Amino acid sequence: MENELGSFLRSRREKADPARAGVVTHTRRRVKGLRREELALLAGVSPSYYARLEQGRDRNPSSEILGALAAVLGLDDAERAYLWSLASPAPPTTEGHAPAADAVRPGVAHLLRRWSDLPALVTSPRRDVLATTTLAPRMNPAWAPGRNLVEFTFLDERARQVYPQWQDISLQAVAGLRATAAARRGQLDDFVATMRKRSETFRALWDSHDVYERVQGAKRLRVAGAGELRLEYETFALTGSEGHVLYVYYGRPGSEDEEKIRRLAAECATSRDFP
Fold first, then answer.
1. pTM of the entire structure?
2. Residue 235 φ/ψ region, left for φ over 0, alpha for ψ in the -120 to 50 degree band, beta for the rest
3. pLDDT for 102-121, tens place per residue?
């Protein structure tokens, strides 16, 4: 069994700022971040107990201990949620009753067909694109039914052209997938293992144990015939056991990006009317 809890704690400890955590030193440090003993002392646990956590010999620390470790390490909300998920036993699953992860509800598909003026898409937990608006594939080849957002980012040579900020996108893609994998214990293991074999960059980012939850924000996109756009986005978790997520992209009101999206939507409408 992999020691995800210990690996995550070690990765955050090595990235922690000793001065921010309250460690005062007058000599040059030879280790990255905090030492095990320093983190244990600051969190109020014994060094031997903390060592057992990192080594995987204790996998169920109390909420009080988790809270103390998170505070010393300066974890953000996403990292805290991830830490708690690693320390909680996975819920039991009933064999043969797993949700159909690739089946989008008819009502959701109908809404996407009606949203002709926005790029929007629904993805599965492993980031398979299940359904989109007509405009979405026109703006990004990754936003097409049957594509996988993670595979496109790391395995498709077009990704670095489409994403001007590819390094940020790739880091966020892996960190977001890690958060989902923790919430849906065991369901993404095969996909992650395959991506680790197919992409050295993915493997390195996965092993960094960064966690990121995409709720809203902005990203830059190069669109054929329209140049570079800055798109705002909102994400919506669709109720249900499938774990589907709806992404909706838009241009800031009154911006040139919004006008470009409007022209692209009109272009798509014309191509549908006159094939």
1. 0.80
2. beta
3. 788 899 999 999 998 999 99
